[in-house]
Amino acid sequence: MTIKLIANQLVMVLTIAIGSLYVINGTMTLGGLAACALLVGRIIQPLNRGLGVLNRWQTVNIVREQLNSIWGLRNQKRLVLPSFGEIKGELELKNVCFRYQNDSKWILNHINLAIPLKTIISIVGAEQSGKTTLLNILATILEPTSGQYLIDGRDVSEYQLKDLRHQIAYLSQGGDLFRGTIMENLSAFDENNVPTAHRISQLLGLSEMIAKLPNGYDTVVGDRAVESLSVGMIRAIVIARALVRKPKVVLFDETNMNLDMQSDIRLRNVLLSLSKIATIVIVSHRPSIVKLASVHYELKDGKLIQVIYGK
């Protein structure tokens, strides 16, 4: 039971309790008490809606502050750098090495990778081989220890990261829902994204699952939500939310985990459609997803090696 529901019931109990005293004293009729209870109920509803909007606004601010705290230290030194502007999607790593601070082991060792725009590549490798680390560098979440990361031929380190991150969709293995409705999550709380959110939901088959919920797209999810969603449905919402911004680069990190076969097929079709406008890097163990790529790589012992299947 939520705090809001408890407060609503408490207000109603107090109204009836106080009204009952007036009825006993003869200053109010039972009909008058019933009318008061009905009126209080109608007053509470718009107040609840207002509190809901306020809660969602606070949630967005909290998330924004958390993200700012994560990126803050890196962004401080980039404030004076120019904005990157719109990207096309050509990616290149030049002699990139990476190791975590105070760790002598190199996770990535002299990686060279050139990805033409609107190309799909796949990267496979053993567990903890550095695949996610490599995607984090491509997503500008991590900086190379040495070497260069170029987008459209320009060194990422010479530009602010805000524009870049807005145009790069990193579809990770996890992902949580924000407190709000399903549509607010899909549209990232931006009404301008609602039409695109509907379209992507239909492509992923998500709209069919949402239609089975009592409140549909207005179902409240996230923190303290009453309606419980399946893991597969949550994954589909997270994927759709990332694609609503029409990114120019899509980084796919085992994102199809917990998806059923039908959802997996639809996701493949979405990726094929996206390849017409975006560069896609796939990390997955599912052959059905890997075979979408035209070029394949294996990450082993910190080295990236091109592989040719079927030979």
Explained architecture:
The protein is of the alpha/beta class and 311 residues long. It folds into two domains: 1-74; 91-307, P-loop containing nucleotide triphosphate hydrolases (Rossmann fold, 3-Layer(aba) Sandwich), CATH 3.40.50.300. Helices cover 44% and strands 19% of the residues. It has helices at 3-25, 30-76, 131-138, 162-166, 182-186, 194-204, 206-211, 231-243, 261-274, 287-290; strands at 91-98, 108-115, 120-124, 146-151, 154-155, 168-171, 180-181, 220-221, 249-253, 279-283, 295-300, 303-307. A six-stranded mixed β-sheet has the order 6-9-10-3-11-12, sandwiched between helices. The protein has a four-stranded antiparallel β-sheet with strand order 2-1-4-5, covered by helices on one side. A hairpin with a 2-residue loop joins strand 4 and strand 5. The model has no long low-confidence stretch (mean pLDDT 84).
